[in-house]
Design goal:
It is built from 5 helices and 8 strands, in the order αβαββββαβααββ. With about 180 residues, it is of the alpha/beta class. The protein has one domain: Vaccinia Virus protein VP39 (Rossmann fold), CATH 3.40.50. The longest helix has 16 residues.
């Protein structure tokens, strides 16, 4: 990761953590990459689990499990230790097809505790053009940028509406990114 990649991740996580539930015992991170968010939450949560297709291997400790695999397909084999008070999907769903997001909504609703929250960050489609420029200038690595497909963030509202209720939606980073907070119905 370049310095700019790390800064953008830091900003995204800072926004997400401002919008988290007050009490979080168990958290799950979809697309956890290197586990950075989970480590950041380890001092305020009892359990931190995640999944990412880029992991080299599964990682298990007393208080966390990070699984290599694609969400939601690989989750069926996942031995969930608890229901989750918060599930994070930061800069993830722009890589998914609409049908995968709909399937994810059902799985996430089952994973959340009765008052659990889903916190999503997702860029505006215009961000892809900005990222192309950053990549050409070698300012960012552009991991999996080829998976972006101009995803419209409004699609999240219809994909999740059967399972979750929208609590909050805001734009940040000069309107180029969105944060959505949903809670279980």
């Amino acid at each position: 990761m370049t310095l700019l990649d790390k800064f953008l991740r830091y900003w995204r996580i800072k926004v997400a953590l401002k919008n988290r539930p007050e009490i979080m015992n168990n958290v799950f991170d979809i697309g956890c990459y290197d586990g950075y968010l989970l480590r950041k939450l380890s001092h305020i949560t009892k359990r931190q689990d995640g999944i990412d297709p880029r992991m080299n291997t599964n990682s298990i400790s007393n208080h966390s499990e990070i699984k290599k695999g694609f969400f939601p397909a690989a989750i069926e084999d996942y031995q969930m230790q608890a229901s989750y008070d918060a599930i994070f999907a930061l800069a993830v769903f722009e890589h998914f097809s609409e049908s995968d997001i709909r399937q994810s909504a059902s799985v996430i609703a089952r994973m959340l505790s009765p008052e659990g929250w889903l916190i999503i960050t997702i860029p505006h489609p215009f961000v892809d053009k900005i990222l192309d420029v950053f990549i050409s200038l070698h300012l960012i690595d552009g991991l999996q940028l080829d998976e972006h497909h101009g995803f419209d963030p409004d699609v999240l509202l219809t994909c999740f509406s059967d399972f979750l209720r929208l609590v909050k939606r805001e734009r940040y980073q000069f309107g180029l990114n969105n944060i959505f907070v949903f809670e279980r119905l």
